[in-house]
Amino acid sequence: MFQSVEISTDLNGLEPLLERLDWLIKQAISTLQTRKKAEEELQISWLQKIEISSEAITIQIRSDSPLAWLQNTFSLSSFDLDILVIALAPELDRQYEKIYAYLQDNMSSKRPTVDLVLNLLCSNIQNKLSRRKHFSNNSPLIYHHLLHLSSELTLLSAHLFLDSQVIRFLLHQPGLDSRLTICCQLLETTLFADTLSIEEDVQKKLQTLVKEDWQKQQPLLLYFQGNDGTGKRHTAQIIAKNLEVSLLVADFKKIVEDKAHFQDNVKLLWREAWFFNHLLYLDNFDILYLQENSILYQIFITELEKHRGITILAGVQNWIPTATGVKGVITVPFTIPESKKRRECWQKHLKTAQISIKDKDLDVLSNRFRLTPNQIADAVATAYNTARWQAISTKFSANEALENNSYLPKEIKLEFVDLCNAARAQSGHDLANLAQKITPKYTWDDIVL
Hints:
By secondary structure, this protein is of the alpha/beta class.
């Protein structure tokens, strides 16, 4: 796994293979020209063409390059690497498109075909036939979806397309795969642990466990359970910041909308996190517990067993153990803190905002409103901004406020009722989730008096 860095002088280890490709192309062009001349002047058949030797270039791949990582991870042969670079070359320089079109005697065929690959890399018909196995469904390149073939009448006519994730990985291109933008977002970890949604000692244990498994590159599955959606994501961002990586956030509500490609999207998602060293956070996991998504749930659990990294699932319901190989799930509850903890949280955020209230009012806020730390922080900020808004409206008209640079008083007068209103708004956010929409089966005509 490699983080996004600048391209090295040897093109991230690709230079030796590209040099070999250029040499093979020169040999092929020379042979092609010789063949055409012979066919025109001497009427020699193409079966008697000059054989191409590929012994001139010795390949030395840098051991710490992305190419070497792919080779070791997916058990790619040197022939597979040649295929990979032939498919990658047009992404580096469009001159290769012209060369490929020339070699294939078809100006519209700018992408390499299986036939072109075999012509470049094989010296005779027997070798070509034996190398067709590299394009079969169970070959490493095809099985692991590193390379895609277009649908054609014959295998030789199929065009090669390197997967966009592999291209970005080899070229160290940052960002998010375009196929995932509809259901994912990549968050840079700039947050600081100023508002903890779980106990501080729990947070430290969690960070220690994740960091240890991350360094050992061993799988770990965490389940953040509770109603505090903001707090769960905030905690995941803190963990990612501690690991010095980005947080890849995916929403299951959006993923399940495309049921036909659910499995492909899940595989794509995990490989995005794996290839580009992101911490993976999957939100709204509960939706897979619905009866209508039971098949998708089984697909996800099956794919989850294969995942090698750290995954954070987030949901409201309790984790339901499976009968499959998914074991060792650690549930981290995100519950409403006790009144004492809520009071401390209110006190902390009020002090930060330079707002002072009476102790009895502080007791009312902490006892009456069962809020999470993030909701308390939001309530204080909302109440403060509401007070600022009222101060502007009281002192100036709308036009005067725009023209006057000192329209706010030095001290904002925040009433206790403002804090109560803001807290009440926070506590009502989840009420809609408790309601269930029903479709009436009876009408007024069905009533018997």
